[in-house]
Write a structure and sequence with these properties.
Layout lengths: L4 E9 L8 H23 L4 H13 L20 E7 L4 E8 L5 H11 L4 E3 H10 L7 H4 L2 H10 L13 H5 L13 E6 L5 E7 L20 E3 L4 E7 L1 H6 L2 H12 L3 H15 L4 E7 L4 E5 L3 E8 L4 E6 L1
Bound molecules: aspartic acid.
Length: about 325
């Protein structure tokens, strides 16, 4: 089999081993392993990198542990508004959706936008109409409800704060010793290289807890949270979206590689540790270059992440 590889993340943030139970950690690891496998199997069968990243991200969207699809965080109005994007590094085609509700798999909707519309980005009601036209599965509020995220939202809803899912620690907010066994983290994403050497990236999120006014983060914005280009790299980001938007983080990695001839590692480290951090931008990103080298870099305490390649590379990790 020709060389293939997939890398995934399930969000970055204040992920502390001291607040994790063995059982919960096991569930995260299982969720990451399943998502890796979903994408890797596509690559093994000769499917495209685009199909592989979609399969991995859909698996994470269906897992309520992660803040995307099922398990998305609550907005200030107590609803779920999800963002997602996908990009094909071979053609530079891209699709994105933002502030969509009820759509079971927003990344699949982004894929449909990329392949079956003349547009790149659809939002809200229009995107939902487009989803209905293409008969994409929808779910009711109950499907997206998660007790833990509801509790997180209740802590913030009468404030003007919004917060990264991973950083709303109920025990701290309440000053109590609430058990964190049901604690859940973040945005999800995947990057892959297929047997033809093509790259792709996808990202999906419920955004930030208590977000207001139709707030949209970096995840669905091509170049900010998601980017793929066969000439350089495929990148999926997670973290404080506003800072990733302002630094055009994913595209910046590609530019540093293209114009400054930095390696993937060097470019990602420069963006994550210099540019994002100088603006107090917490988070991280996963990346793959055209030769199949990968990197998983973050400036937060942890990032749910994993990689599987046909060269035998395999890793699932959470903490720094
Ligand atoms: N980047 C996402 C956003 O700002 C949040 C995350 O990565 O958890 O919407």
């Amino acid at each position: 089999m020709a060389f293939v590889k997939i890398v995934i993340h399930g969000g970055a943030g204040t992920i502390r081993k001291t607040e994790m139970t063995e059982h919960l950690e096991e569930r995260y690891r299982e969720g990451l392993a399943e998502a890796l496998e979903a994408g890797y199997q596509k690559l093994e069968k000769g499917c495209s990198a685009v199909e592989a990243v979609m399969a991995s991200v859909m698996s994470l969207e269906d897992n309520e542990l992660f803040n995307a699809g099922k398990g998305s965080v609550f907005t200030s109005e107590g609803v779920h508004e999800m963002d997602a994007a996908i990009m094909d590094g071979a053609s530079l085609k891209a699709g994105a959706v933002c502030a969509v509700s009820r759509i079971k798999n927003p990344v699949r909707l982004a894929y449909m936008v990329m392949n079956h519309s003349p547009h790149v980005m659809l939002c809200g009601k229009g995107a939902e109409t487009f989803a209905r036209m293409h008969q994409l599965p929808e779910e009711n509020d109950e499907y997206f409800f998660s007790e833990y995220r509801y509790e997180q939202w209740k802590m913030l809803r009468n404030t003007d704060q919004s917060a990264l899912d991973h950083n709303v620690h109920l025990s701290e907010l309440r000053g109590s010793s609430r058990n964190m066994t049901d604690k859940k983290y973040g945005t999800v994403g995947a990057v892959a290289i297929d047997s033809h050497g093509n790259l792709a990236a996808a990202t999906s999120t419920g955004g930030m807890t208590n977000k207001r006014w139709g707030r949209i983060g970096d995840s669905p914005v091509i170049g900010a949270g998601t980017y793929a280009n066969n000439n350089t790299c495929a990148i999926s980001c997670t973290g404080h979206g506003e800072i990733f938007l302002r630094t055009v983080a994913a595209y910046d990695v590609s530019c540093l590689m293209e114009y400054k001839r930095l390696s993937l590692q060097e470019a990602m480290r420069s963006v994550v540790f210099d540019k994002l951090q100088s603006l107090q931008g917490e988070g991280g990103m996963i990346g793959l270059d055209a030769s199949g080298n990968h990197a998983m870099i973050f400036n937060s305490e942890g990032m749910y992440r994993g990689v599987k390649g046909s060269d035998g590379s395999y890793e699932i990790a959470i903490y720094a």
